[in-house]
Protein backbone atom coordinates (compact mmCIF):
# COMPACT_ATOMS: atom_id res chain seq x y z
CA UNK A 1 0.00 0.00 0.00
CA UNK A 2 1.32 3.41 -0.88
CA UNK A 3 2.29 5.89 1.79
CA UNK A 4 -0.80 7.92 2.61
CA UNK A 5 1.17 10.94 3.76
CA UNK A 6 -0.48 10.70 7.18
CA UNK A 7 2.21 10.86 9.84
CA UNK A 8 0.20 10.38 12.97
CA UNK A 9 -3.01 8.96 14.28
CA UNK A 10 -5.48 11.53 15.50
CA UNK A 11 -6.42 11.30 19.16
CA UNK A 12 -7.76 7.88 20.14
CA UNK A 13 -7.90 6.47 16.61
CA UNK A 14 -10.43 9.02 15.37
CA UNK A 15 -10.95 7.49 11.94
CA UNK A 16 -13.96 9.30 10.58
CA UNK A 17 -13.74 9.19 6.80
CA UNK A 18 -13.72 6.23 4.47
CA UNK A 19 -13.17 5.18 0.91
CA UNK A 20 -14.77 1.87 -0.06
CA UNK A 21 -13.61 -0.27 -2.98
CA UNK A 22 -15.84 -3.00 -4.38
CA UNK A 23 -14.23 -6.26 -5.41
CA UNK A 24 -16.44 -6.27 -8.50
CA UNK A 25 -15.05 -3.07 -10.02
CA UNK A 26 -13.00 -3.14 -13.19
CA UNK A 27 -9.27 -3.78 -13.15
CA UNK A 28 -8.52 -0.11 -13.84
CA UNK A 29 -9.75 0.76 -10.35
CA UNK A 30 -6.92 -1.15 -8.69
CA UNK A 31 -3.36 -0.08 -8.05
CA UNK A 32 -2.35 -3.61 -9.04
CA UNK A 33 -4.33 -6.65 -10.14
CA UNK A 34 -2.54 -9.89 -9.31
CA UNK A 35 -3.78 -13.18 -10.72
CA UNK A 36 -1.71 -16.20 -9.81
CA UNK A 37 -2.24 -19.73 -11.05
CA UNK A 38 -3.27 -21.92 -8.13
CA UNK A 39 -5.05 -25.27 -8.25
CA UNK A 40 -7.30 -25.41 -5.25
CA UNK A 41 -8.50 -22.88 -2.71
CA UNK A 42 -5.95 -20.29 -1.62
CA UNK A 43 -5.37 -20.55 2.14
CA UNK A 44 -2.92 -17.69 2.66
CA UNK A 45 -1.27 -14.70 0.98
CA UNK A 46 1.59 -12.60 2.33
CA UNK A 47 4.10 -10.11 0.93
CA UNK A 48 7.74 -10.47 1.95
CA UNK A 49 8.91 -8.27 4.82
CA UNK A 50 12.08 -6.97 3.16
CA UNK A 51 11.20 -7.11 -0.57
CA UNK A 52 8.03 -5.34 -1.65
CA UNK A 53 7.81 -7.16 -5.01
CA UNK A 54 7.82 -10.68 -3.55
CA UNK A 55 4.51 -12.38 -2.76
CA UNK A 56 3.92 -15.76 -1.12
CA UNK A 57 0.77 -17.85 -1.42
CA UNK A 58 -0.43 -21.17 -0.07
CA UNK A 59 -3.23 -23.30 -1.44
CA UNK A 60 -4.92 -26.68 -1.29
CA UNK A 61 -2.60 -27.93 -4.04
CA UNK A 62 -0.22 -28.76 -1.17
CA UNK A 63 2.40 -26.15 -2.00
CA UNK A 64 3.59 -22.71 -1.00
CA UNK A 65 4.64 -20.58 -3.94
CA UNK A 66 6.82 -17.49 -4.17
CA UNK A 67 5.93 -14.94 -6.88
CA UNK A 68 7.71 -11.88 -8.25
CA UNK A 69 4.97 -9.37 -9.13
CA UNK A 70 7.30 -7.63 -11.59
CA UNK A 71 6.89 -10.65 -13.90
CA UNK A 72 3.84 -11.88 -15.84
CA UNK A 73 3.08 -14.26 -12.91
CA UNK A 74 2.70 -17.25 -15.23
CA UNK A 75 5.30 -19.16 -13.24
CA UNK A 76 6.33 -18.87 -9.57
CA UNK A 77 9.89 -18.04 -8.64
CA UNK A 78 9.97 -20.90 -6.13
CA UNK A 79 7.73 -23.77 -5.05
CA UNK A 80 7.93 -25.24 -1.55
CA UNK A 81 6.60 -28.73 -0.87
CA UNK A 82 6.27 -30.84 2.27
CA UNK A 83 6.92 -34.39 3.40
CA UNK A 84 5.31 -37.31 1.59
CA UNK A 85 4.14 -38.79 4.91
CA UNK A 86 2.25 -35.61 5.78
CA UNK A 87 -1.08 -34.62 4.21
CA UNK A 88 0.53 -31.26 3.30
CA UNK A 89 -2.78 -29.42 3.62
CA UNK A 90 -1.40 -26.02 4.57
CA UNK A 91 -3.94 -24.09 6.64
CA UNK A 92 -1.75 -21.13 7.62
CA UNK A 93 1.77 -19.89 6.95
CA UNK A 94 4.10 -17.00 7.74
CA UNK A 95 7.56 -15.74 6.82
CA UNK A 96 10.18 -14.68 9.37
CA UNK A 97 10.91 -10.95 9.70
CA UNK A 98 14.17 -11.35 7.75
CA UNK A 99 12.41 -13.43 5.05
CA UNK A 100 14.80 -16.35 5.51
CA UNK A 101 12.43 -18.98 6.92
CA UNK A 102 8.93 -19.98 5.82
CA UNK A 103 6.76 -21.91 8.26
CA UNK A 104 3.42 -23.56 7.43
CA UNK A 105 0.91 -25.31 9.67
CA UNK A 106 -1.17 -28.24 8.47
CA UNK A 107 -4.55 -29.79 9.04
CA UNK A 108 -4.47 -32.96 11.09
CA UNK A 109 -3.48 -36.08 9.18
CA UNK A 110 -6.53 -38.29 9.61
CA UNK A 111 -4.53 -41.48 9.16
CA UNK A 112 -1.66 -40.84 11.55
CA UNK A 113 -3.44 -38.13 13.61
CA UNK A 114 -0.23 -36.10 13.45
CA UNK A 115 -0.29 -32.32 13.04
CA UNK A 116 2.75 -30.90 11.28
CA UNK A 117 4.57 -27.58 11.31
CA UNK A 118 6.99 -27.41 8.39
CA UNK A 119 9.98 -25.13 7.81
CA UNK A 120 11.75 -24.17 4.60
CA UNK A 121 14.86 -22.15 3.82
CA UNK A 122 13.48 -19.50 1.50
CA UNK A 123 16.84 -19.01 -0.20
CA UNK A 124 17.76 -22.67 -0.69
CA UNK A 125 14.15 -23.84 -1.13
CA UNK A 126 14.82 -27.07 0.76
CA UNK A 127 12.70 -28.36 3.62
CA UNK A 128 14.58 -27.68 6.85
CA UNK A 129 12.51 -29.80 9.19
CA UNK A 130 9.18 -30.46 10.82
CA UNK A 131 7.49 -30.33 14.25
CA UNK A 132 4.71 -32.81 14.94
CA UNK A 133 4.22 -33.12 18.73
CA UNK A 134 3.03 -29.69 19.89
CA UNK A 135 -0.55 -29.61 18.54
CA UNK A 136 -3.27 -32.24 18.43
CA UNK A 137 -5.65 -30.69 15.88
CA UNK A 138 -5.69 -28.41 12.81
CA UNK A 139 -3.31 -25.46 13.01
CA UNK A 140 -5.22 -22.23 12.36
CA UNK A 141 -2.50 -19.61 12.84
CA UNK A 142 1.26 -19.32 12.25
CA UNK A 143 2.81 -16.00 13.31
CA UNK A 144 6.49 -15.02 13.49
CA UNK A 145 7.60 -12.29 15.88
CA UNK A 146 7.90 -8.95 13.99
CA UNK A 147 11.52 -8.32 15.07
CA UNK A 148 12.89 -11.68 16.33
CA UNK A 149 13.33 -14.07 13.37
CA UNK A 150 13.66 -17.21 15.52
CA UNK A 151 10.55 -16.57 17.63
CA UNK A 152 7.39 -18.22 16.32
CA UNK A 153 3.87 -18.59 17.68
CA UNK A 154 1.16 -21.00 16.52
CA UNK A 155 -2.51 -21.54 17.32
CA UNK A 156 -4.79 -24.50 16.77
CA UNK A 157 -8.34 -25.77 17.08
CA UNK A 158 -7.03 -27.81 20.04
CA UNK A 159 -7.10 -24.53 22.00
CA UNK A 160 -3.34 -24.32 22.46
CA UNK A 161 -1.08 -21.41 21.57
CA UNK A 162 2.59 -22.38 21.40
CA UNK A 163 5.72 -20.23 21.33
CA UNK A 164 8.91 -21.66 19.81
CA UNK A 165 12.57 -20.71 19.51
CA UNK A 166 13.23 -22.28 16.12
CA UNK A 167 16.97 -21.74 16.50
CA UNK A 168 17.06 -24.77 18.79
CA UNK A 169 18.02 -28.19 17.34
CA UNK A 170 14.89 -30.18 18.30
CA UNK A 171 11.18 -29.56 18.83
CA UNK A 172 11.48 -30.42 22.53
CA UNK A 173 14.20 -27.81 22.93
CA UNK A 174 12.43 -25.29 20.72
CA UNK A 175 9.11 -25.10 22.55
CA UNK A 176 9.32 -22.23 25.00
CA UNK A 177 5.73 -21.83 26.13
CA UNK A 178 2.35 -23.55 25.80
CA UNK A 179 -0.71 -21.43 26.53
CA UNK A 180 -4.32 -22.60 26.75
CA UNK A 181 -7.12 -20.47 25.30
CA UNK A 182 -9.68 -23.13 26.27
CA UNK A 183 -11.27 -22.83 22.82
CA UNK A 184 -10.48 -23.05 19.13
CA UNK A 185 -7.95 -20.36 18.15
CA UNK A 186 -9.01 -17.90 15.44
CA UNK A 187 -6.30 -15.18 15.40
CA UNK A 188 -3.00 -14.58 17.19
CA UNK A 189 -0.54 -11.71 17.00
CA UNK A 190 2.41 -10.03 18.68
CA UNK A 191 2.62 -6.75 20.56
CA UNK A 192 6.24 -6.52 21.65
CA UNK A 193 6.82 -9.54 23.89
CA UNK A 194 3.10 -9.85 24.52
CA UNK A 195 0.99 -12.29 22.53
CA UNK A 196 -2.75 -11.90 21.96
CA UNK A 197 -5.32 -14.50 20.95
CA UNK A 198 -8.88 -14.24 19.61
CA UNK A 199 -10.90 -17.47 19.69
CA UNK A 200 -13.78 -18.74 17.57
CA UNK A 201 -16.16 -18.22 20.50
CA UNK A 202 -15.16 -14.53 20.79
CA UNK A 203 -12.92 -14.67 23.83
CA UNK A 204 -9.72 -12.63 24.04
CA UNK A 205 -6.42 -13.36 25.80
CA UNK A 206 -3.24 -11.33 26.23
CA UNK A 207 -0.13 -13.00 27.62
CA UNK A 208 3.35 -11.77 28.61
CA UNK A 209 5.55 -14.42 27.00
CA UNK A 210 8.65 -13.43 28.97
CA UNK A 211 7.04 -13.46 32.41
CA UNK A 212 4.73 -16.29 31.36
CA UNK A 213 1.63 -14.69 32.86
CA UNK A 214 -1.86 -13.55 31.88
CA UNK A 215 -2.19 -9.83 31.27
CA UNK A 216 -5.84 -9.81 30.20
CA UNK A 217 -8.56 -12.43 29.86
CA UNK A 218 -11.94 -11.44 28.39
CA UNK A 219 -14.40 -14.34 28.23
CA UNK A 220 -17.63 -12.30 28.35
CA UNK A 221 -16.72 -9.22 26.33
CA UNK A 222 -20.04 -9.14 24.42
CA UNK A 223 -21.95 -8.91 27.71
CA UNK A 224 -20.00 -5.97 29.16
CA UNK A 225 -22.32 -3.21 30.42
CA UNK A 226 -20.36 -0.50 28.62
CA UNK A 227 -20.55 -2.40 25.29
CA UNK A 228 -24.30 -2.27 24.82
CA UNK A 229 -26.61 -0.05 22.78
CA UNK A 230 -24.73 2.08 20.25
CA UNK A 231 -21.44 0.48 21.35
CA UNK A 232 -22.66 -3.11 21.18
CA UNK A 233 -20.52 -5.80 19.55
CA UNK A 234 -21.52 -9.19 18.17
CA UNK A 235 -18.17 -10.77 17.34
CA UNK A 236 -14.40 -10.19 17.52
CA UNK A 237 -12.25 -9.75 14.43
CA UNK A 238 -8.57 -9.28 15.32
CA UNK A 239 -6.03 -7.33 17.32
CA UNK A 240 -4.59 -4.09 15.95
CA UNK A 241 -1.30 -2.47 17.00
CA UNK A 242 -1.41 1.29 16.38
CA UNK A 243 1.44 3.56 17.47
CA UNK A 244 2.73 0.73 19.69
CA UNK A 245 -0.64 0.44 21.44
CA UNK A 246 -2.79 -2.68 21.23
CA UNK A 247 -6.43 -2.34 20.21
CA UNK A 248 -9.11 -4.95 19.56
CA UNK A 249 -11.38 -4.70 16.51
CA UNK A 250 -14.91 -6.04 16.87
CA UNK A 251 -18.06 -5.73 14.78
CA UNK A 252 -21.76 -6.18 14.26
CA UNK A 253 -23.33 -8.33 11.56
CA UNK A 254 -24.74 -5.25 9.79
CA UNK A 255 -21.18 -4.12 8.99
CA UNK A 256 -20.35 -1.68 11.79
CA UNK A 257 -16.85 -1.81 13.28
CA UNK A 258 -15.78 -1.01 16.84
CA UNK A 259 -12.19 -0.24 17.75
CA UNK A 260 -11.64 -1.06 21.43
CA UNK A 261 -8.96 0.09 23.85
CA UNK A 262 -7.91 -2.98 25.84
CA UNK A 263 -5.17 -1.34 27.90
CA UNK A 264 -7.34 -0.94 31.01
CA UNK A 265 -9.29 -3.30 33.22
CA UNK A 266 -12.36 -3.11 30.97
CA UNK A 267 -12.43 -2.63 27.16
CA UNK A 268 -13.87 0.63 25.90
CA UNK A 269 -14.90 1.76 22.41
CA UNK A 270 -12.62 4.53 21.13
CA UNK A 271 -14.10 4.67 17.65
CA UNK A 272 -17.07 3.30 15.73
CA UNK A 273 -16.74 2.95 11.96
CA UNK A 274 -20.01 2.78 10.05
CA UNK A 275 -21.27 3.18 6.51
CA UNK A 276 -18.61 1.08 4.80
CA UNK A 277 -19.76 -2.53 5.16
CA UNK A 278 -23.23 -4.01 5.09
CA UNK A 279 -22.38 -7.47 6.40
CA UNK A 280 -20.00 -9.35 8.70
CA UNK A 281 -16.38 -8.17 8.56
CA UNK A 282 -13.87 -11.02 8.57
CA UNK A 283 -10.44 -9.37 8.52
CA UNK A 284 -8.61 -6.09 9.03
CA UNK A 285 -5.12 -4.74 8.50
CA UNK A 286 -3.29 -1.64 9.72
CA UNK A 287 -0.82 -0.25 7.18
CA UNK A 288 0.63 3.20 6.45
CA UNK A 289 -1.59 4.77 9.12
CA UNK A 290 -4.73 3.46 7.46
CA UNK A 291 -7.14 0.68 8.35
CA UNK A 292 -8.23 -1.81 5.69
CA UNK A 293 -11.21 -4.08 6.36
CA UNK A 294 -12.71 -6.91 4.30
CA UNK A 295 -16.19 -8.33 4.68
CA UNK A 296 -18.69 -10.88 3.45
CA UNK A 297 -20.32 -8.10 1.41
CA UNK A 298 -17.43 -8.41 -1.11
CA UNK A 299 -16.14 -5.00 -0.09
CA UNK A 300 -12.73 -3.73 0.97
CA UNK A 301 -12.93 -0.50 2.96
CA UNK A 302 -10.04 1.88 3.46
CA UNK A 303 -10.41 4.11 6.53
CA UNK A 304 -8.17 7.14 6.85
CA UNK A 305 -7.91 10.79 7.91
CA UNK A 306 -7.54 12.17 4.45
CA UNK A 307 -9.96 14.80 3.31
CA UNK A 308 -13.06 13.39 1.73
CA UNK A 309 -12.60 12.48 -1.92
CA UNK A 310 -15.19 14.21 -4.15
CA UNK A 311 -17.85 11.78 -5.27
CA UNK A 312 -17.71 10.85 -8.94
CA UNK A 313 -20.89 9.88 -10.69
CA UNK A 314 -20.59 6.27 -11.91
CA UNK A 315 -20.93 5.71 -15.62
CA UNK A 316 -23.23 2.77 -15.05
CA UNK A 317 -24.73 0.75 -12.28
CA UNK A 318 -22.29 -1.55 -10.58
CA UNK A 319 -23.48 -5.05 -9.89
CA UNK A 320 -22.00 -6.60 -6.76
CA UNK A 321 -22.42 -10.28 -6.14
CA UNK A 322 -23.30 -11.30 -2.62
CA UNK A 323 -20.60 -13.47 -1.14
CA UNK A 324 -21.31 -16.84 0.39
CA UNK A 325 -21.30 -16.65 4.17
CA UNK A 326 -18.93 -19.14 5.76
CA UNK A 327 -19.70 -19.67 9.38
CA UNK A 328 -16.82 -20.05 11.82
CA UNK A 329 -15.81 -23.60 12.64
CA UNK A 330 -17.39 -24.62 15.95
CA UNK A 331 -15.06 -25.73 18.69
Describe the structure.
This protein is mainly β. Helices cover 1% and strands 43% of the residues. The strands form six sheets. It has a four-stranded antiparallel β-sheet with strand order 1-24-23-22, with no helix packed on it. It has a four-stranded antiparallel β-sheet with strand order 2-3-4-5, with no helix packed on it. Strands 6-7-8-9 form a four-stranded antiparallel β-sheet, with no helix packed on it. The radius of gyration is 20 Å and the shape is globular. InterPro entries: WD40/YVTN_repeat-like_dom_sf, WD40_repeat_dom_sf, WD40_rpt, WDR89. Keywords: Repeat, WD repeat. It holds the Pfam family WD40. This is WD repeat-containing protein 89.
The total count of helices amounts to 1
Biggest sheet, in brief? 4 strands, antiparallel
Q: What is the succession of H and E elements? A: EEEEEEEEEEEEHEEEEEEEEEEEE
- Please tell me what the overall shape is: globular
Separation of the first and last Cα atoms? 35 Å
Strand percentage:
35-45%
* Biggest sheet, spatial arrangement of strands: 1-24-23-22
Q: Give the C-alpha Rg.
A: 20 Å
Helix content: under 10%
User: Structural class, from secondary structure content?
Assistant: mainly beta
Keywords: Repeat, WD repeat
Protein name: WD repeat-containing protein 89
Organism: Mytilus edulis
InterPro entries: WD40/YVTN_repeat-like_dom_sf, WD40_repeat_dom_sf, WD40_rpt, WDR89
Amino acid sequence: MADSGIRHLFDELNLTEKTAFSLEKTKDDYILDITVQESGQITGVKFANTESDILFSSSEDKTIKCWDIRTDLKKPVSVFEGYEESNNIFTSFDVSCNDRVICAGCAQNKKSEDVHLMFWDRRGKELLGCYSDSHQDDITQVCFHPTEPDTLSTGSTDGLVCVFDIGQPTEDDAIVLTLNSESSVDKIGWHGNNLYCVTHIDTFYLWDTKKEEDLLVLTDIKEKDNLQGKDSIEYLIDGLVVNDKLHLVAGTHNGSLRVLDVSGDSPTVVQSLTGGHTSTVRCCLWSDNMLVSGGEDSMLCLWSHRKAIPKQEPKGKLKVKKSVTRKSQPY
